[in-house]
Amino acid sequence: MSEQPFDHAPAPSLDDFARLARAAFDALPAPFRAAAGEVVIRVDDFPDEQTLAEFGMEDPFELTGLYSGVDLARREGLGSAPEPSRVFLYRRPILDEWAERGDVGLSDLIAHVLIHEIGHHLGLSDDDIDRIEDAAD
């Protein structure tokens, strides 16, 4: 039996994901990056138990990303939010979706999740984001 090209390739690490997320963010149009402001991008393997409980989820593979913070539409005044705005990207669920789909590159999937969560930071709902994505296709 011959060796396959991915037989000895390690899964992308948290640092690899962080680099891919940074590259995806840097590739966004300047106005979108500016609107995102000081949002912190964090990569974890999985959401924590509290986050899963808040969403009524038992399977940590169900959640690929999360926005945490007060979105721009709900902030009062021009000051900063009481807590830093954060986008979480969850490495293992994203890798799982990427492997199952097989129709999208890993960098593209990371960018998709990142953009979706930044959309929440901007105050957009899932329906708003879906309409924007549908119009772009």
TrEMBL record:
Query: What Pfam families does the entry give?
Result: Zincin_1
Which superkingdom is the protein from?
Answer: Bacteria
Q: Which InterPro entries match?
A: Zincin_1, Zincin_1_sf
What is the protein's given name? Answer: Metallopeptidase family protein
What organism is recorded for this protein?
A: Brevundimonas balnearis
What taxonomic classification does the UniProt entry list for its organism? Bacteria, Pseudomonadati, Pseudomonadota, Alphaproteobacteria, Caulobacterales
